[in-house]
Design goal:
This protein has helices at residues 2-11, 23-41, 57-64, 100-109, 120-125, 156-171, 181-188; strands at residues 45-51, 77-79, 88-92, 115-119, 147-149. The chain has 189 residues and is of the alpha/beta class. The protein has a five-stranded parallel β-sheet with strand order 2-1-3-4-5. β4, α5 (120-125) and β5 (147-149) form a beta-alpha-beta unit. α2 (23-41) runs parallel beside α6 (156-171). The chain is globular and about 60 Å long. Mean pLDDT is 79; it is low at 178-189.
Length: 189
Amino acid sequence: MRRLLFKSLVHGPLTEAPPAVDAAAVAELAALVNRAARRRLGRTLSIREVDAGSCNGCELEIHALGNVLYDLEQFGMRFVASPRHADVLLVTGPVTANMREALMRTYEATPHPKWVVAVGDCGRDGGVFKGSYACADGVSAVLPVDLHIPGCPPSPTALLQGLLALLDVVEQGAPVNGQRPAAAGAARQ
């Protein structure tokens, strides 16, 4: 035991170095997202994350959005605990048979205007679980999806860029879930 302890003290941890982060790119992205959210909603964008049966890879990347490196709050976005306070449902994983009804109830509890974002390859089409008896494949098999963010798992930067793309679509006045977001957004403030 002493040898192992001494060896670990001498050689240090066996972990990889963190990826290089371009601080200027993150700051620019923060400014864009914050301006877009405030201009379109007049307030912060509230996100409710729903795990519909994933492997938790996407959740790890989503949780990284809250750390000091990405700090989602600086972008004018925040996670909320209740779908009744959410603007966006961020859904990960293939929709399992056990989570199908819970996901539909969460969607119904979210007030209009609401947007659904399917995260990861499993959220898009079921990923490696596609066609399984235990799942309904991707999120779009259960709910109308406004945006797919690809990746297995997508990086936090890709998640932020995807949310910015969603805000751009909303600003252009495209119908979202069968509704005009500009008209619905005014009533939601």
